[in-house]
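Sequence in, structure out.
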Amino acid sequence: MKKKSIIPGFGLSMGITIAMLSLIILIPLASVLAYSFRLSWGEFIDLITRPNVVQAFATSIGCALAAAVLNCIFGVILAWVLVRYDFPGKRLMDGMIELPFALPTAVAGITLTKMYSDGGVLGRLLESVGIKAAYSKTGIVIAMIFIGIPFVVRAIQPVLEKLPDTYEEAAAMLGASRFTTFWKVIFPEIRPALLTGFGLALARGIGEYGSVIYISGNSEKNGTQVVSYIIMQKLNSGNVDYEGAAAIALVLLIISFLMLFFINIIQHIASRRTNA
């Protein structure tokens, strides 16, 4: 006798899920593959090994990696403050963490460029200590930090909220310092979530366009062109090159998937050790 499912309408729900998944994710990704395969292997290699393309990949990955690491440091601090302390304006600060998600990335890019340019408030301050933010890789990292910080904070926050205070109390009673308590007691608990936030911030930063396009300066000479800008160049030029844009996008997609895959493996191993 066939066992009746406790969830009604499973077939219809699964059909709708597969249809939406195909329309939103699978078919667009398949189109990237289809356009990329129009190039021969030699044309594909020649395209992705051009100096400006290689430089753009190095800039995107390097800046995204630096921004993701900094997001992990500041994200842990922000999540800790929001979870462990009560202060006036806490709810407002907690809501502002979501601002990079709600704010259009182009608006964020224009605002950051204005603030960090030579005539901006923060730009003049950094210029006084010899740091040029706008139209440099420093500006790209700043923009990627802005759009990536919510991923880290929102990944760590629930873990800290569920972490009992008794762990820290027990460590303090045994004579552990604050640093030892954090490193040996708290950090192993938040490590899987931290890796998740790191991976999401890294993947978002590598493919970011709107928030970095203005502050970067897009200078091939200064090495501030990002991969997304190279793709848009091929789509907006007089002779639109869909195949070239799709080929570069395919490499970018593969890099992002591989990074997320390895980070998920590390996260899984860390979770098993923590649960053990």
